[in-house]
Amino acid sequence: MTAITYIAGGSKGLGSQLVKTFENQDHHVIEFSRSGSGNNHINCDFNDIKSTALTLQNTFNTLSLENYDQINLIINTAILAPFGSLPNAESTTIKQHLNINIESSLALLQSFLMAFQHQPSNKTIAYISSGAARRAIPGLAMYSASKAFFERFIDTLAEEQTNEQQPIHCMIINPGVMNTGMQTEIRSQDAKNFPMVGLWNDWHEAGKLANPKDIAEICYRLITNEGKNGGYYTAQDYLINK
What we know:
seven-stranded parallel sheet, 7 helices, Rossmann fold, 43% helix, alpha/beta
């Protein structure tokens, strides 16, 4: 079987582990980010919508001419900032958040669907979400909202795909709490901007942060075999059965 997996946001944390995991399973991996490296890295600044859209379109259109039995897209692009209340947020930070967390991801989905919708391959889109999408976390409103936005979008896309002759399976994966740079960024916040910072520090001190390598392996299982169209999965729940 020949397989290609596109990973948006694969230079650090969970993303870099996803790249390694899929490569180790003989997938042709294409990684989009601003800070990645390697032969399969494509430079893509998700804060720049126009250049991102052009890069994605060119890449997908070129590779759609090749035949693969399995085609996957993993969306792992996100930033946390701004922290704190909206009146205190810088307008440039708000715009950057919307560009990276929403607009570029929409461009990614649109380009992928246009290039691969009608290919008779086994196709999957996996959106890497967060528990923040389903709860109110004071000081993290924009991140929670952007994740919730795409959870509903992916749910709807999954339903729409049931009417397609060559459907694409769409799923949401909530990794759970992991030992990544994002967790470090959260724990560094002042309590006045992020009142729940103590809880995140407690998780860290109690050793409750999962290893991104283990989570990436679970994501691989879900994306390539076990996950279903319209499914929502919390990867950390699978660790006991790893």
